Structures are given as C-alpha cells and as structure tokens.
Amino acid sequence: MTDYNFAYLDEQTKRMIRRAILKGLAIPGYQVPFASREMPMPYGWGTGGVQVSAAVLTPDDTFKVIDQGADDTTNAVSIRRFFEKTAGVAVTEATVDASVIQTRHRIPEQDLRSDQILVYQVPIPEPLRFLEPSEVETRKMHSLEEYGLMHVKLYEDISQHGAIATAYAYPVKVEGRYVMDPSPIPKFDNPKLNMAGIQLFGAGREQRIYAVPPYTDVVSLDFDDYPFEASKADHACDLCGAEDSYLDELIVDDAGGRMFMCSDTDYCAGRRKAGCIGAQGVPYQEDVA
Amino acid sequence: MNPLLNVTGVSKFYGNRIGCKDVSFDLYPGEVMGIVGESGSGKSTLLNCLAGHLGPDTGAVNFDTRIEGMRDTITMSEPERRMLSRTDWAFVHQHARDGLRMNVSAGGNVGERLMAVGARHYGEIRDQATDWLSRVEINADRVDDRPSAFSGGMQQRLQIARNLVTGPRLVFMDEPTGGLDVSVQARLLDLLRGLVREMNLSAIIVTHDLAVVRLLADRLMVMKDGHVVETGLTDQVLDDPQHGYTQLLVSSVLQV
C-alpha cells in the first residue's frame, strides 16, 4: 500500500461527495453544490471528475480514463497513474473490463452495462450561463422550470448558421424536468445518454455535482422544424473502417493530406484486432506504437 | 366594467424613509394612466411594487387574471407572478439595455417571450418576430443584428416589440422616452399611442415629462415625497392644477 489514504481524499471528504452524488441521483439533472477540494492538478484538468472517481472507487474496481476518447493522452495517462498510485486499483484500457470510467468529452462507443459507472469532467455545469450571467437568476430559472432562454440560444444558432450549430455541450432535458449540460461531449454522443450505466458529473472549480441514473429519459432540446441531429464527420474510420463511430480528423502532412480515425481508441483497436481494416489502415500487430 | 388592476393602500418604506405611501387607484381595460412627479418622489418605487419587482410593505395589488379573475399579485406564488410577467404583463425599462439581451439578435430578443411560453417552431417564431419588428418600424433585414448595432431609439422600439409580442394586457413603462432626442421621442410616442389603441392595452406610464402624459395618458396621478397629491383626467390636471406642487410642475415646463 501507499502512504496515501485510499484514493487520495480523506474519508470525511469522500463521505461528503457521496452524499452529493446520492442527492444528484435522486434528483436527475439537478446541480448539487459540494465543497470541492484542492487537488494536485490544475483546475480544468478534471479536478471535479477526479474527486467523484475518488469517492466511488473501491479496492476491487477496475479503472479506465479517457480523454477525447483516447486512453493514451496526457490527461488520461496522468489521472490513471494518479489512482494507480493513490488507490492501488487495477487499471485497464478496455471499456468492457472497466467498472469505473472517468471521461473527458466522450462517451465510449461500446454500450455500458448496469454495473459500470461513467464519471464526466465538467468545465461549466450551468447550461444557461452564457445567456444569463447571474447565478441567483439561473438557479431560480431551474427551480421554476423557466427554460425558454435555452431555446433562444438554439434560435440564435439557426438564425446565424441556418442550422443548430451547437456541436458539443448540447443541452438536454433530463426526465422531463431539469435542463442539463452534458459536459462538452459531441452531440453525436447525446443519444447515448440514455444508458444502463450510472453517469456522474463533477465540476471541481464550479463546485457542482450532478447525475443521470440508469435508464433515465434524456432528451436533446430542439425545434419542431429543426429537429436534433446526432452529427459526425461524413466518413469512415481510415484505420478500422468503422462507419458508426465518432471520428477525429487529423492533418498528416503539409500537402493537405488528412485522415479520419475513431476518437475512441479502445473501440478502434478492438475492431482492428478483429481484422477490420480501413482505407489507410494496416493489419493489426501487437506492440506497434 | 370591472377594473383590470385594483391597487389599495400600497406603501413601501426604505427603513425610516418613505418610498411611497398609501397609494390606491383602479385601472380599467384600455386605460392609460400617467404617474408624474420629480426625481425621488416615489414613482419608480410604486411602479416596481405594482410590477412585482419590489415587495410592498402594506397594501394589495389585485389583477384581473384571465383564468381565476381578481388575484392579489403580492401574495400569489412567485412562479405564478413570473408567469404573469411574461404573458399578461409587460415592462418597458427606461434604458433599453436593461430590458434587452444585448448579445442576442433582435429576432431572438423578440422571440424569447414566445419561447418562454412554449413556442417550439423556429419558422413561426421568426415570422412573428419579423412581423413585430415591422410593426415598430424596424426593417426586416435587421432581424439578425444585435441590439448593440441599433440606435437608442431603435433599441427602445425593439424593447417594446419584445414586450408586446405575447399580447399582454397591462404594460408598465418607466420613462420610456427618457434619454431620446425630441424627434425620436415624437416618433416613439406616435408608435406607442397607435399600439395602445390598436391592442386596447392598459398602461401605467411613469415619467417626469408632461408632454408624454399629455399625449398618451387618459388619467394622471401626481406624486410628491412618496404621496399622491393630485389625481384626475390628464387635461384637467394639466390645465387646471389644484395642488401647489402640481401648479409648480406645470409652470416649470419651458415654452418654446
């Protein structure tokens, strides 16, 4: 074991966070204030998600961290190492093997099961913030269910761009009551918010926790004549050939060369292992960097 | 005919100082009432008490709601009052930027109240917004411009369109022509007079500009130090003022 208390935070703090999580689960989509702690990483790097993960982890858990879908970016690697060191839990890159998944900006392509928990890192939990700067006023709007303003944002999108141009952090209504910011996931992921797993959202700097319980009705807001569309790049993955996954576009040289690849690295690797090959892909080999 | 608004004994104190004291009146459908007085006389305090922005210390403000008839808006629950203030009521601020969302286009500003009461069809919202812009003499091609690109007079007209789009029955106006130059004022007054007649609006206009009430108001209430010192028909009060302060006020107007 290490010199840290299990999962870094002290037991009283974890207890306080668990209370906030339980309240959040009881009132889906409601932002529960909590006393966010200073974490050994800067705000904006997932301090909210880390605190929620610390509060839900048990020694038997298997932990996975993804950042923009990838398991191997700085943010994902450092948070994974953090819990390896302070909690000594098993870690994995495989979505199916993980029991707790902390994520930034994506929902895994693989459907989650009811024994899995998805923890989101949230920069700005208040969906109405950019239209209504006053916290007092936005809280009142939530409590009185006055959500007309959210549609003003979508109206502005259509009037300026001819379509709803909000591509990420697309506002949703949870269980017919609270309007919620699903964190900056692409709107392609919004339909996946109706899932079997527990979804917890932690905003460290803003000191808010909210949650979506399993099988909760989550509806993306839209207009009758401009319905919600889960959009993605109109392409197939160049590595694994998947046509149903969310894609990143990469510039690969100075001559305008580009390729599309799955943003979910575990999903892409799994498909390539199974023998799928995209337009620019090569057959899968172990230990190819 | 039943009054649309029945105000009885409304008082508001700021500590020991008086905001407004013991104000009572009835307002009938289609009637426009002016409240005049100098700065600090309690006009705006009274208006804010009536519109639910401030809680008065005593008194009742009964409004003839569409469904339940007369209701005291001070004791009704906050959701009900806020619902009223975005359907049957409208509030025109002196400074247009207090009443507009400056970072949202003109169309979005007008559409906000529609969306707040449940409109979810973009095309219809936009058609209504464009229609209202033309009714307040703003070109339809400005519908996607932000209010910050508008002149003061246009901002004020936009604020009026934004308030009237849901077809309110009672409009509160706080110095609607303050800060505008005289020719723009004249056009705005013309427009307001037309809309009030056309939509059969009731309105309460707070102003220190006697010309505004002469043009718009049927009835007049003169306030001084938080008290109502004189009430009556507009022409009667202005042409034959009885109270010393009203005489002073009327004689203070510069003749050109």
UniProtKB/TrEMBL annotation, chain A:
Pfam families: PhnJ. It catalyses: alpha-D-ribose 1-methylphosphonate 5-phosphate + AH2 + S-adenosyl-L-methionine = alpha-D-ribose 1,2-cyclic phosphate 5-phosphate + methane + 5'-deoxyadenosine + L-methionine + A + H(+). Its EC number is 4.7.1.1. It is an enzyme of class 4 (lyase). One of its GO terms (molecular function) is metal ion binding. The keyword Transport does not apply. Keywords: 4Fe-4S, Iron, Iron-sulfur, Lyase, Metal-binding, S-adenosyl-L-methionine. GO terms for biological process: organic phosphonate catabolic process. It comes from the Bacteria. Catalyzes the breakage of the C-P bond in alpha-D-ribose 1-methylphosphonate 5-phosphate (PRPn) forming alpha-D-ribose. Belongs to the PhnJ family. This is Alpha-D-ribose 1-methylphosphonate 5-phosphate C-P lyase. It comes from Yoonia maritima.
TrEMBL record, chain B:
One of its GO terms (biological process) is organic phosphonate catabolic process. GO terms for molecular function: ATP binding; ATP hydrolysis activity. Residues 5-250 form the ABC transporter domain. InterPro entries: AAA+_ATPase, ABC_transporter-like_ATP-bd, ABC_transporter-like_CS, P-loop_NTPase, PhnK. Transmembrane segments: none annotated. NCBIfam families: CP_lyasePhnK. This is Putative phosphonate transport system ATP-binding protein. It comes from Yoonia maritima.
